[in-house]
Amino acid sequence: MPTYKYFNWAFAFTAVGLILGAWLGWNSTGTLSGALQVFFICAVLAVLEISLSFDNAIVNATKLKDMTPTWQHRFLTWGIVIAVFGMRIVFPLVIVAIAANLGPVDAVTLAINQPAEYARILTGAHVSIAAFGGTFLMMVGLSFFFEEEKDIHWVHWIESHLARVAGVKGVEIGVTLASILVMYSLLPKEEANVFFYAAIWGLLTFIGVEILGSVLDASQETMSAAAKGGLGAFLYLEVLDASFSFDGVIGAFALSQNLFVIAIGLGIGAMYVRSMTIMLVDKGTLAEYRYLEHGAFYAILVLAGIMYAQTLTHIPEVIVGLFGAALIGISVWSSVRWKKANPELVEAEAAAD
Question: Of 2, 34, 106, 342, which has the fewest CB atoms closer than 10 Å, so is most exposed?
Answer without folding.
Answer: 2
